[in-house]
Design brief:
This protein is α/β, with parallel strands linked by helices. The protein has a domain of 73 residues: 2-Layer Sandwich (Nucleotidyltransferase, domain 5). The protein is 29% helix and 16% strand. It has 3 helices and 5 strands, in the order αβββαβαβ. Strands 3-2-1-4-5 form a 5-stranded mixed β-sheet, covered by helices on one side. The chain is rod-shaped, with a radius of gyration of 32 Å.
Amino acid sequence: MKLNNRNVKLSAEIPTSSLADIVFLLLIFFLVSTSMNPDKGLGLTLPPPGEEVKVLTTNVLNIFINAQGKVLFKDEVVEIEDIERLVRSEIAENPKLIISLQTDLKAKYEYMIAVLDQLKLADAKKISLATPDL
C-alpha cells in the first residue's frame, strides 16, 4: 500500500503558550537579584528643629565661596586645597570653633562640596551652612 505524502503539510510553529510564563519568571528573577545603589547624598547630622543657641562671634570662623569659586577665609582668598591645613590650625587654637560656610547663589555646587570635603578632612565637627544674603 502506498501512502499519499502530498496531503501532509509540515508546519514549523513555536509553542507560545508557556512563553509568557518564562518571560514573567525571568523578569521577577532579574528584579529580585538586581541591587540598586541610590545616591547617598551628604552625610550630615542636623540638629533638632527649634533649637537655638547663642554663640560668641570669637567662636565662629566665616568661610565664603563667591560665584567664581574663590574661597574667602578670614577675608583672604585661599585655594580650596589649603582649607584643611588652615582649619585644622584654627581648631587647634579654639576647640569650640564653629565654621560658618556661606556660598553665593550663583556658585556651582562642586565648590561647596569641595570645601565641605576639606572641612571633613580637617576633622571639623561643627559646621554651619549659612544662607546666602539676598
